[in-house]
Amino acid sequence: MTTSFKNDDEITEIIRGSETILDKNTQDLKTINTKLDICSDHLSVYGYAMFDPVWKGLYNTYARGVTIRLLTEITKDNIDHCKKLCSIAEVRHIDNIKGNFGIGDESDYRATPKIDSINFAPKELIKSTVKTFVEQQQLFFDMLWEKSISAEQRIKEIEYGIKREFIETINDPVKVKTIALDLLSNAKKEILIIFSDSHLINIEANRELIEILQKKQEDKNVTIKMIFSSDTKTEILDLINVKGKSKDKRGWSHSTTGLEFQKMQPKMNTGVSIFVIDGEYSLSIESNPKSSLGEFNLFGLSSYSNSQSTVMSYISIFQLIWMQNSLHLQLRQANKKLKLYNKIQKEFIDTAAHELRSPITPIISLASMLSPNREVQNQEEYNSLVEIIVRNAERLNSLAKDLLDVTKIESHSMNLKSEVFDIVNLVKDIIEGHTTSLKFDTIKNIQIVFTSNGLEKLNVKGDRTRIIQVFENLLDNAIRFSDEFIQTRQEILRREKSMIQIIIDKSTTHDNSSAHLLTCIKDNGPGIDSATMPKLFKKFTTQDPNGNGLGLYISKGIVEAHGGKIWAKNNPNKDGASFFFTLPMYIK
Fold it and tell me: What structural domains does the chain harbor?
């Protein structure tokens, strides 16, 4: 049955009956001269490829030189049929195409309803040659054709599991927000966000975004990195602080998940916020400057993509901003350190100048008293002046050496000689030298006791001279403060001996992976006052008015250069202080 509508040479027909439709289509294929465009759903493709009369009609049309374009949805179920059709037509894929229509020579349009199965033949056909209507449908087909992808690409996606890349421009704020929340909710590994405008998260409608981020923060598998504009950071933290969770000082709940954020430098703020999820999806959102805080359309033009090149570009932008922020922070910290260093250097120079002036002043004044133009009353006075000059010259020489050592430590240029030596014998030699000098001192009443816990030999590899310097500094301090303590109480303790203990022992790490030497030098002097303890090993720190405050600093530098540690503590019951240091032992 056929119903026709005619207008001059233009005609529109409705043809009914499956056999009639088949005969009409196969006959009309013979009249097409140059071009045939077909749009078909995924089920109708089966009829073109497998129903013999239709296939023969299409094949003969192709053989006559007619260009055939077929637009359909290629699926894993119809892929073989589509491959067959590729031999006679240019086939392209578009998702979710519905209905079936064709246009011959851009002048003859026909369409059938959507079918529900491959075995169901259409029972109605609309055929029209009305020019305006055909042109409209041809334009519609061409638009779909431009949005489609090649059959070759779609077949590869199906057969090899390749994910199709896309770039979508969106101007619908509702859709943009839905995509953003969906991406964040489904993140599995990494979330990178640049918040360039506080409008994006400033209103109640977007609390969902913050809530999702809070949940993802608790996911141990997801790393979150965010870059904020200066105003956005405050807005985000204000929103997060509304939640009744345990917060750190930044407003985020404590979590084992890596969460980092940085502040964007103003010149880097482009007004575009960027989301990159799992290195696979990107969403860039322009803020809408015309929207008020109460409006929902605060999202401007947006771009959504899974294109690898696009996503990698956004990752590079994020990493560049992150790196620049890190470098900026490091530069600020370096400037602070430089200012502090300049201050310390000035204080060092001022203190060093003062320390140098102390021995130089008596040397100059006393030396002038020994000039030929002045007379010395007797030899005893002469010898006394020379002795003072020599003593201050030695003090000056010692200070110069200490200052040189300080310079080497701070510039990391202290060259250590490497040799293996027995620390037990070395300590015995040092003690012997001090014991001998103490015997001839009628004022000091000090005894040095050495204990090596039964160990007759302990080998250490390092600079022997520098290790001696450490022992000498610590032992000199112990003697000096023990002597001072005795003299302040000499009416009571004149006949008592002050004892200094040197204890050496061997120790190992908890896993027995390495052994080291532990040395303790213990005195029963006045101890270390609480104000001095925190800065004990810093330059020019001393409780001795006659000391330069460099010995402990230098000792620390030497011990650490050997891979050891040094520390001190007061003894119980206010009975002096103990200094400890470790050195790696030499084991063949």
Answer: 2-160 (3.30.870.10), 167-306 (3.30.870.10), 355-409 (no CATH), 419-584 (3.30.565.10)
